[in-house]
Amino acid sequence: MRRHPGTFLAPLACGLALLLVAAPGRTQQLAVNPPTPYAALEQEIAREINLARTRPAEYAAFVEQLRPHYSGREFRQPGKPALLTQEGVGALEEAARVLRAAKPAPPLEVSQGMCAGAKELVRDQGASGATGHEGGDGSFCEQRVGRFGAWVAPIGENLSYGPESARERVLAFMIDDGFASRGHRTRLLNPVFKVVGVACGGQARRGLRHHPRRRLQRPARLRQGPARREDALRRAPLLSLFTQDDADGRCRR
Question: Checking DSSP bridges between strand 195-202 and strand 109-110, what pairing results, if any?
């Protein structure tokens, strides 16, 4: 039985990096690349997120359809390995209540620059088998997106690993089992966010394992102004720590 900390982890996983910002920024002219084998999944995930944002009450029904698969903390679907959740059905019930009470939010616009920034981490971790928000070069989402254009704060990142479908991934974010802040759900439903970038890719077997959740220090506060902000991001320390999102939507180290 696998433990389920909020997203699914599995050998030979498909990694998902999801980036959100408050408003479109300036994007560099990007080369047109041929579609990847994951292009359809990326599009489905973007559509699924927008369905949850624009019709949250309807999405609550999808969450509630999972209720019969819980037995205490165990979550078991036919033909799939059982998962041991941290909270059991209580997290599902909370997610359904939040979605039914939520006001519809505008759909997110897909940005190619944001997708390129998300793809940086997918490509990195696809080769290394690593997980978490820090890239192999010590970068976080702010730096990776900045390589492809300007972005407008706030910015946030959700990650998912496993063979799940677009709906299963978004449902996991909505339930957000084991995360007291419910930051993954809050981020996807937040009307402040206007733009999204989605990237998926295959993940190497080595290094993929369950990581304990850690609450780590907030990144050093960056000075205002694009030039100073860019310089500060370049000077970000290189750390080898697993990271998670917190409630305010910032990437964590």
Answer: parallel
